[in-house]
Design goal:
The protein is an alpha+beta fold.
Length: 802
């Protein structure tokens, strides 16, 4: 058997070398499909399959709370509950916790806002990753009166401390509090997500209600002999005891213990599954195309197959010959696919790391390893079966007599049309997915700002309580900052607010005076913004009714608010909203707020543009974290350095962050949809090209079998137009079948995609019709080419064809 296989390999190699056009076309088609598939597999492997890069990472478990009433399955644990878990017998050999947040880093350096993590002592040791310099955080660092100790990341050590070996013991300031650097973590380590500095979870003697405590993510390892079910039961019992002791409303009523990888990878599964499905569709299309090429190739080699059969070759040997040839094509395509996947992996890593909120650092390390190679070989074998089994079986059933005569009808079948219809259907799915993701990106890029988004610059500040202890000092700082920024050449207006359009905003429920509470007790939620008059001037927002916030709205004047048009229409349709009163439900003891103006709807949150907005004067509702909004006469990016210098001149200890234009905020919100749109667009374009090539191959194959018929018709006087119409109608069957099946599959796939992307219309008749028109147009061109080629052959040549 081995000798036979080697012989067939030699024959197949010679045959492929004699037909470079066929070989390169088949390898190119299948290589692109396999390359996309391998690329997506590498992404999925880095996100879902590869174990956590920690010591015995597969043993790590995540502990969280669940509210079965609301269905919320990702509730963090209050710090007090975590400490109770540590002290109780819950079946865990070790338990740790972390919380995340931003801190102001200063002290002998340019102030910077960094993402920090507060972790329990011993966390690094349990992960099996110790500092490369110094020590980890220990139990003594958690004492409330202990000096503040910090461990810094490798990049921070390089950037701010010039990689000095004597960095240990250096004094810095964290949110204005003196701190000592006690350790430096290894390169790339950024647990739990992309943190650059770590502090200890400090204890406190203050009595704080559970719902007001710091919430933490809990993780650990089970003790030997303990299963997840046993640990879950023990933690559930403890939760019931804690709920009973607190006396207040329960935060949750159940406990969830999962593999720690699920905490990081769970939210990514729907998106990755959707994209991998699209890639598989493209691979199937590629295999179908190669199958069609093989069918046409077997027609051309009918005489050769008939001779081999006549001299004793069995059907099994003929099938083996065809499968070996397909296998060689698939192996060559796999090599090409691996090269494409490597390029794609490099591109994906750069794209993911540039995201506003990138995934954990180990998920952005996309590499092609042994598992990927094994997957490649598996896909090559699968491709061989998908692309070669049916053509090989058809070739093995050749009619010897007809084959010796070079009969063109030897391999006549409907398989080519069926494959073409399948390609068209799958192509429609890919194109609809591409159109929907593009729709999401375009929707996020839309803005109803009266001013150009690239001319509006914003930056965020977090003044420290030590320097600005009360509301009056915050308001004074904001006024000083606004005057300084407005004096910069090229800045036309400057304002202060707690939110920037299309970034994010605070939200809360509002109670309307004179209205009964909803039956469920939940008042509507609105986006809340505290702003000064310069905010509206910078964005060129004008009042549709009433007035805007102005200088008369001080901390001593009556509470007022400006609302969006959508909020006015929701609560006072057909009425005059000016003079109406409302208040935030969480501040029900405060005075009623009078509506003094209405402005057009301007979303503060790019992910939720439908929620109405409520604007309060900054002087009446200041917040510790606020932003400035500047309108520049030119591109906002030109003012970045001048703005930094102005802020530094006011307070050298005050870091400025999120310094970007409104256009930048829109781009940030569209980052992941843009990734998906690029990938789905690539999938859709490639699927369209493959479907066109497949339809062309089918029609060229079928028309070549009708050459004698065409010659007879032309010899008998049939017009070219009539013959052309007859041949084009032949393509309608696979086209109509493919579009009908494609509409059904694409609609179902759109519903799945809606769970991943926002702002898409899955039921848009216009979108589905447009995709169908595109496919029909491409199919018409693909059908016209072989038809015109057939008509170019003279009747005499056609009659002599066989």
């Amino acid at each position: 058997m081995t000798i036979v296989f080697v012989q067939e390999v030699r024959i197949a190699v010679r045959s492929l070398l004699r037909s470079p056009g066929f070989s390169l076309t088949a390898i190119g088609m299948l290589g692109a499909g396999l390359g996309l598939c391998l690329f997506m597999f590498a992404v999925i492997q880095s996100h879902l399959l590869r174990p956590l890069p920690f010591a015995n990472g597969e043993q790590l478990l995540h502990v969280g709370y669940v509210d079965t009433q609301t269905g919320n399955r990702w509730i963090q644990v209050p710090l007090q509950d975590f400490r109770a878990m540590r002290e109780a017998d819950t079946g865990f050999a070790s338990l740790h916790a972390f919380s995340q947040g931003d801190v102001n880093l200063s002290g002998g350096m340019i102030p910077e806002r960094l993402q920090a993590a507060w972790i329990s002592a011993g966390s690094f040791r349990d992960l099996g990753v110790l500092p490369q310099l110094g020590r980890e955080l220990v139990a003594s660092d958690e004492a409330a009166d202990a000096p503040l100790a910090v461990v810094i990341g490798y990049a921070l050590w390089q950037e701010h401390f010039d990689a000095r070996s004597d960095v240990l013991g250096s004094e810095i300031k964290i949110d204005g509090e003196p701190a000592t650097v006690v350790g430096v973590m290894p390169e790339e380590f950024a647990f739990p997500f992309n943190n650059r500095i770590w502090l200890a979870q400090r204890t406190s003697n203050d009595v704080v209600a559970r719902e007001a405590q710091t919430s933490v993510d809990v993780w650990g390892r089970l003790a030997p002999g303990t299963g997840m079910a046993g640990a879950n039961a023990a933690l559930s019992t403890l939760l019931q005891e804690l709920n009973a002791q607190s006396g207040g409303a329960a935060l949750a009523d159940a406990v969830r213990v999962d593999p720690y990888m699920e905490y990081f990878a769970g939210p990514m599964r729907p998106m990755l599954a959707t994209m991998f499905t699209a890639v598989i569709l493209v691979l199937i299309i590629a295999c179908a195309n190669v199958a069609q090429l093989l069918l046409a190739r077997n027609l051309q080699r009918a005489r050769e197959s008939a001779i081999r059969t006549a001299i004793g070759a069995s059907r099994r040997r003929l099938m083996l010959s065809n499968l070996v040839e397909t296998l060689l094509v698939c192996l060559a395509a796999s090599v090409a696919g691996l090269l494409l996947a490597m390029v794609g992996a490099h591109w994906a890593m750069q794209f993911l790391r540039a995201a506003e909120y990138p995934p954990p650092y180990w998920m952005t390390n996309i590499r092609l390893d042994g598992l990927t190679v094994a997957f490649t070989l598996s896909m090559a074998l699968l491709g061989t079966l998908l692309a070669g089994l049916w053509p090989a079986w058809r070739a093995a059933r050749i009619d010897v007599v007809a084959g010796m005569r070079g009969g063109g009808s030897v391999l006549r079948s409907r398989s080519g049309s069926v494959l073409a219809a399948l390609e068209i259907a799958l192509c429609m799915v890919c194109l609809v997915a591409a159109a929907l993701t593009l729709q999401s990106v375009l929707h996020r890029g839309e803005t109803n700002l009266p001013v150009a988004a690239e001319k509006v610059l914003s930056g965020r500040l977090s003044p420290l309580p030590q320097a600005y202890p009360d509301d009056a000092s915050l308001v004074k700082l904001s006024e000083t900052l606004k005057r300084s920024l407005a004096a910069i050449p090229g800045i036309e207006t400057a304002g202060i607010s707690t939110s920037v359009p299309y970034s994010w905003a605070g939200s809360g429920e509002i109670e309307v005076e004179g209205r009964l509470a909803p039956a469920d007790g939940a008042w509507p939620s609105v986006q809340t913004v505290a702003a000064d008059p310069g905010y509206f001037a910078s964005l060129q927002l004008t009042a549709q009714q009433g007035r805007l916030i102005d200088s008369r709205d001080t901390s001593q004047s009556p509470a007022v608010a400006v609302i969006s048009q959508s909020l006015a229409e929701r609560f006072w349709p057909g009425e005059v909203a000016i003079g109406k009163r409302l208040r935030m439900t969480e501040h029900a003891q405060d005075a009623w707020i009078e509506v003094v103006g209405i402005v057009p709807q301007l979303s503060q949150d790019a992910d939720d543009r439908s929620q109405p907005s409520l604007y309060r004067p900054f002087a009446q509702a200041p917040r510790r974290q606020f932003s400035f909004v500047l309108r520049s006469s030119g591109p906002a990016a030109e003012q970045v350095q001048a703005v930094r210098e102005a802020v530094f001149a006011i307070d050298p200890e005050l870091p400025i962050y999120y310094l970007r234009s409104v256009r930048d905020w829109l781009d940030v919100s569209a980052h992941m949809p843009r990734v998906m749109a690029s990938l789905f667009g690539m999938f859709g374009l490639f699927a369209l090209l493959l479907a066109a090539a497949g339809l062309y191959a089918v029609l060229a194959f079928q028309i070549s079998q009708r050459s004698r018929e065409i010659g007879l018709r032309r010899a008998l006087g049939a017009r070219r137009g009539n013959i052309l119409g007859m041949l084009l109608r032949q393509s309608l069957t696979p086209l109509l079948l493919g579009i009908s099946l494609g509409l059904f599959l694409a609609f179902g796939f759109a519903q799945v995609l809606a769970s991943v992307l926002l702002d898409i219309e899955t039921g848009s008749v216009l979108l589905f019709a447009l995709v169908a028109i595109i496919i029909s147009t491409v199919a018409a061109v693909a059908a016209l080419l072989p038809a015109r080629r057939a008509l170019a052959v003279s009747p005499l040549a056609a009659l002599r064809w066989e």
